[in-house]
């Protein structure tokens, strides 16, 4: 279930949508990719894959490139070598779309520099999951690994949280929830917004799930869970995390 568009605030992160370049000459597949990625909030730009594609990619500066191996003007491997040599694109993740599994070794070869591959035919769901994973990795590298607020110190790489000297014992979901609150402290979030941001596309979660995890989190971080100081209830709306003044 998604948030109700009439009662939910505009985007939480206020981040620019991530931009995906799709280099694929098969129009049908290209539009299928466009449809599925757009549906998940990505901005998609399609490239046919001919001689001028590298220049166009450099101008577009995408966050990730989906690259077909068999292209009309040049092969995808050749284009990938160009991408890796380009000052603008060298660090952009490249996910190859290949029709033949015997190309896989070459895709992941050091010389070519692909980050991942999908063998056709693949499910759009799987593709979106891979894209998301690669972009998250990029974000993690760009963002600070250790976050500190008040007595809390959250180490993203180790997935550990300390409150003062005490290490908190959190489940993975509680960790994600606290990480979200710490990176968005001071703002109020509805249960639906928290579901969308922390649980993402997992199914079988309801607003009630949020309450259960908030309660568990409070038991870990609050001296008096029934009278919280950090993770407070915003009446009739949801929750807010902040360092009490
Ligand atoms: Ca092709």
What does this structure look like?
- The protein is α/β, with parallel strands linked by helices and 245 residues long.
- The protein folds into 2 domains: 19-142, Rossmann fold (3-Layer(aba) Sandwich); 146-241, Winged helix-like DNA-binding domain superfamily/Winged helix DNA-binding domain (Arc Repressor Mutant, subunit A), CATH 1.10.10.
- Helices cover 37% and strands 20% of the residues.
- It has helices spanning 27-39, 53-60, 76-85, 104-107, 124-142, 172-183, 191-199, 207-221; strands at 19-23, 43-47, 64-68, 94-98, 116-119, 146-149, 152-155, 160-163, 166-167, 188-190, 231-234, 238-241.
- The chain has a 5-stranded parallel β-sheet with strand order 2-1-3-4-5, with helices on both faces. A 4-stranded antiparallel β-sheet has the order 6-7-8-9, with helices on one face. A 3-stranded antiparallel β-sheet has the order 10-12-11.
- The radius of gyration is 21 Å and the shape is elongated.
- The model is unreliable at 1-14 (pLDDT under 50).
- Calcium ion binds next to loops.
